[in-house]
Amino acid sequence: MSFTIFRTDELDWHPRREGDPRLAAELSDSMTRSRANLYRYPPGVVGRRHIDPVQEEVFVVLDGTLTIHMGEGDAPERHELERGSVLVVQPGTALQLSNRHDDELRLFVYGAPPERGETTFLPTFDES
Q1: What CATH number is associated with residue 92?
Q2: What pLDDT does residue 128 have?
Q3: Using one digit for the tens of pLDDT, what is the confidence trace for 92-104?
Q4: Most CB atoms closer than 10 Å: which of 32, 69, 79, 115?
C-alpha cells in the first residue's frame, strides 16, 4: 500500500512561473495516473487562456469565487463558481480562470491522463 498525505500547514507554495502572482502547491509528484495541484489566486488575478488537447480537468473551488470563461471567439461563456462548486472540462475546451472578486480564490485542480499535450495559449479575454 502506498499513499501520500498533504497537510495544509506543510504545503510548499510557489509562483507558477517567474512574475506570476498565482501560487501553486504541486501534488503531482506523488501521483502515477493523473496530475493535481492546489492554487491560490489573489484578488484581480487572471490566468492564461488556453486549450489542453489531452487532459480532462476537474476544478474544485475550495474558497472564494472562480470566474471562468469557456469557449473560443470574442464572447466566451462566463460562469461564476462559488465555494464547493465542481467543474469538469473536457479536453479541447478553451478556458481562462480568474479571480474577479475581493477575497483570495483557492482551487484544487485535477487532470487525467498525466501526460501534457501541446497546450495552445490564446489571447487573454478582457471583459472591460
Answers
A1: 2.60.120.10
A2: 63
A3: 999 999 999 999 9
A4: 69
Place of cell 507554495: 13
Contact 31, 114 (CB under 8 A): yes
Q: Which domain does 76 fall in, by range?
A: 21-121
Single-letter residue type at 16? R
Handedness of CA 81, 10, 32, 114 (dihedral sign): positive
Residue 12: inside a domain, yes or no?
no
Contact by Cβ (8 Å): 68, 79: yes
DSSP string for residues in 5-66: ---GGG---EESSTT---EEEE-GGG-SS-EEEEEEE-TT-B---EE-SS-EEEEEEEESEE
Q: Is residue 59 a contact partner of residue 82, using CB atoms and an 8 Å limit?
A: no
Dihedral (CA of 55, 29, 18, 47) sign: positive
CB 77 within 8 A of CB 87: no
CA distance 128 to 126: 6
Residue with cell 507558477: 16
Q: Give domain status of residue 4, yes or no.
A: no
